[in-house]
Design a protein that fits this description.
The protein is α/β, with parallel strands linked by helices and 433 residues long. It has 3 domains: 199 residues, NAD(P)-binding Rossmann-like Domain (Rossmann fold); 55 residues; 134 residues, NAD(P)-binding Rossmann-like Domain (Rossmann fold, 3-Layer(aba) Sandwich). The protein is elongated and about 80 Å long. The two termini are 39 Å apart. The structure holds nicotinamide-adenine-dinucleotide. Nicotinamide-adenine-dinucleotide binds next to α1 and α5.
């Protein structure tokens, strides 16, 4: 395919070399004269493993060239990759000046071009940018999006230092566009890449890179905080994290990653508190570990606010224990929610088949007597009695029988845990989805 690349920095130069290596013809565009000159001399614009050879070979085989002339680049290619910088402003916002400038240039070029053109956003941009770029190009070119041209969000996942290898072996390819024709062409472009191609909503494609990188930053800081605590105790932190990473079921896995309700139960709150107290006693600053409980508490408050904002008084709670299939209510976050709601005078009825008052012994019994002395009056034996009575139903764990709760047009279903089968209820609200 014939591809133009706007921005010949790390992403653009690697993209240029790797696409040329895969048999495509590339025209690079940059505002920096020295970068254009280097490419036209067969030299890479960056220092990066393998890229010098790749650019030199592509230049020798005449499959790459560079120019300042954006019209030349757009008129002589079918796809334009946007790889310009998106730095932070001094106030921390994203500076999209380069992106918008490039969109204007492509719009000007497209005004004079008849064939369909695809604009691919490789730069890291916030949700809404695909639409903003489409609007600029429409205004400048007087062409119609998804008819004369299309914008595809296709975030780049490479890391500097291993950029060529990362480009050639991505974990996956993400595509988001309102134009099926453009998606098909992009799939063809990536058909030899040995990785799944995920076609997703544009906003998903736009935000994913931020989610990835924020998580990577969190991993670094988490490892460092664990390291500091371990070092202070004379424990080999690298050995600890090696063992940590061996658990592919709970640690390095999709488990615990689904947006849902606050964590609770007998272990997570207790053990996190113990590690934080240990760090405190060792005079170790561990702000990330410290912030976890606060974040969890704020999430619980968000659930309470959502219930209060309904201005309804009859609240039915589906599930009292901290997760399905157990009667354990120690640190069950919904117990705190119920405590607040009943303290505010709302009527609460609860259904949980695993929590029968007669079986309550030990720690569970004390949770109830301290926090919910009136639980006796709230707990109901019949799911349908609670469902028929409630103005608002709160789904607080993933018990199987909650999937088939009957529809009621007058009833609000506030789902704290995301039971997919409930999402088509007439008045469905998810806590954070
Ligand atoms: N560097 C990485 O490892 C990496 C990885 C993935 C994604 N990204 C994202 O990719 C984007 C580019 O990053 P980078 O590190 O390659 O940036 P960079 O600063 O190395 O390169 C950007 C290039 O764009 C050029 N440019 C600016 N305005 C232009 C215009 N109007 N027309 C043509 N060229 C123009 C600049 O001269 C520069 O050469 C950023 O959004 C970044 O967040 C970077």
């Amino acid at each position: 395919m014939k591809i133009s690349i706007f921005g010949l920095g790390y992403v653009g130069c690697v993209g240029m070399g790797c696409l040329a290596q895969s048999g495509h013809t590339i025209i690079g565009v940059d505002v920096a004269p020295e970068k254009v000159e280097r490419i036209n001399n067969g030299q890479a614009t960056i220092v990066e493993k393998d890229i010098d050879d790749i650019i030199a070979k592509a230049h020798a085989s005449k499959t790459i060239r560079a120019t300042h002339d954006y019209k030349d680049a757009v008129h002589n290619t079918d796809i334009s990759f946007l790889c310009v910088g998106t730095p932070s402003t001094d106030k921390g916002h994203l500076n999209l000046d380069y992106i918008y400038q490039t969109a204007k240039e492509i719009g000007e070029a497209l005004a004079e071009k008849q064939s369909f053109h695809i604009v691919v956003i490789r730069s890291t941009v916030l949700p809404g940018t695909n639409n903003a770029i489409s609007t600029i190009i429409e205004e400048v070119s007087k062409k119609k999006r998804n008819v004369d041209f299309a914008v595809v969000s296709n975030p780049e996942f490479l890391r500097e230092g291993t950029a060529v290898a990362d480009y050639m072996n991505p974990p996956l390819t993400v595509l988001g566009s309102a134009c099926p024709q453009a998606i098909e062409i992009m799939k063809e472009l990536y058909k030899n890449t040995n990785a799944p191609i995920e076609v997703v909503a544009i906003e998903v494609a736009e935000i994913i890179k931020y989610v990835n990188n924020s998580y990577h930053a969190l991993k670094v800081v988490f490892g460092n905080e664990v390291g500091s605590i371990c070092k202070e105790m004379g424990i080999d932190s690298h050995e600890v994290m090696r063992i940590f990473c061996m658990d592919k079921q709970l640690n390095i896995s999709p488990y615990y990653f689904k947006p849902g309700f606050a964590y609770g139960g007998s272990c997570l709150p207790k053990d996190l508190k113990a590690l934080n107290t240990l760090a405190h006693d060792l005079y170790i600053d561990s702000p990330v570990l410290n912030a976890i409980e606060d974040s969890n508490h704020k999430h619980l408050q968000k659930a309470i606010r959502l219930i209060e904002q309904t201005n309804k008084r009859k609240i039915g709670i589906m599930g009292l224990s901290f997760k399905a299939g157990t009667d354990d209510m120690r640190n069950s976050p919904i117990v705190n929610v119920i405590e607040v709601l009943s303290g505010k005078g709302l009527e609460v009825r609860i259904y949980d088949k695993n929590v029968a008052l007669s079986r309550l012994i030990g720690k569970n019994k004390s949770v109830i007597s301290e926090k919910l002395p009136h639980l006796n009056n709230m707990l109901q034996d019949s799911l349908s009695d609670v469902v028929e009575w409630a103005e608002v139903l709160i789904i607080s764990n993933k018990e199987n029988e909650f999937k088939t709760i009957p529809h009621n047009a007058n009833q609000l279903v506030l789902d704290l845990v995301r039971i997919a089968e409930l999402e088509n209820h007439p008045q469905y609200v998810g806590l954070c989805w």
